[in-house]
């Protein structure tokens, strides 16, 4: 979502126009959803559990991370319901960037993506990858699917 502002500037939209016009930027990707009929619990080692705890620890409160203290990771198996793929349907992972006076001021100064990302973090934006990890912890998809959509997971 943060990359949308520099992209608009690259398209020669005036920063003075971008700031007041923005209210929300949404970025999304679709990932495969685990088949609820055949998914099976996956063993998690201590290293992965530590990585997950570290990721939850750095996540903004807006992510409602307290809902994910007890989780089970699942893996795809395959059955007749999902044509032996292990996945059935898709689920979206999202990133929401709220605009406001502070964002408008930063855009007017033609801020870089790095500065905009810092401001978004200050506003407690949950990144697309973090949303994906939360969907993994909710049993909807797998870490592999999130990595396919967003790149290697930055555990913190």
What does this structure look like?
The chain has 156 residues and is α+β, with helices and mostly antiparallel strands. 40% of the residues lie in helices and 17% in strands. It is built from 7 helices and 4 strands. The protein has helices at 4-10, 15-21, 46-58, 101-108, 113-122, 128-137, 143-150, and strands at 24-34, 40-41, 74-75, 87-98. The strands form 2 sheets. A two-stranded antiparallel ribbon has the order 1-4. A two-stranded antiparallel ribbon has the order 2-3. Helix 2 packs antiparallel against helix 4 and helix 6 (128-137) packs antiparallel against helix 7. The radius of gyration is 18 Å and the shape is elongated.
Low-confidence segments: none
Indicate the structural class.
alpha+beta
Shape: elongated
Main beta-sheet annotation: 2 strands, antiparallel
Distance between the termini: 20 Å
Provide key terms for this protein.
156 residues; alpha+beta; two-stranded antiparallel sheet; two-stranded antiparallel ribbon; 7 helices; 40% helix; 17% strand
Blueprint of the fold:
Blueprint: H1 4-10, H2 15-21, E1 24-34, E2 40-41, H3 46-58, E3 74-75, E4 87-98, H4 101-108, H5 113-122, H6 128-137, H7 143-150
Antiparallel strand pairs: 1-4, 2-3
Helix pairs in contact: 2-4, 6-7
In short:
This protein is 40% helix and 17% strand. It has 156 residues and is an alpha+beta fold. The longest helix is centred in the middle third of the chain and has 13 residues, at 46-58.
């Amino acid at each position: 979502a943060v990359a949308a502002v520099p992209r608009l500037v690259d398209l020669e939209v005036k920063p003075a126009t971008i700031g007041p016009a923005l209210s929300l930027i949404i970025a999304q990707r679709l990932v495969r959803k685990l088949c609820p009929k055949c998914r099976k619990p996956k063993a998690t080692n201590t290293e992965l559990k530590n990585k997950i705890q570290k990721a939850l620890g750095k996540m903004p409160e807006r992510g409602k991370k307290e809902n994910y203290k007890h989780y089970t990771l699942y893996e795809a198996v395959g059955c007749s319901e999902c044509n032996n793929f292990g996945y059935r349907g898709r689920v979206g992972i999202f990133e929401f960037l709220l605009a406001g006076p502070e964002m408008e001021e930063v855009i007017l100064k033609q801020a870089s993506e790095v500065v905009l990302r810092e401001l978004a973090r200050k506003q407690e934006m949950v990144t697309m990858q973090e949303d994906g990890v939360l969907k993994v912890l909710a049993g909807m998809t797998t870490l592999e699917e999130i990595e396919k959509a967003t790149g290697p997971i930055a555990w913190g």
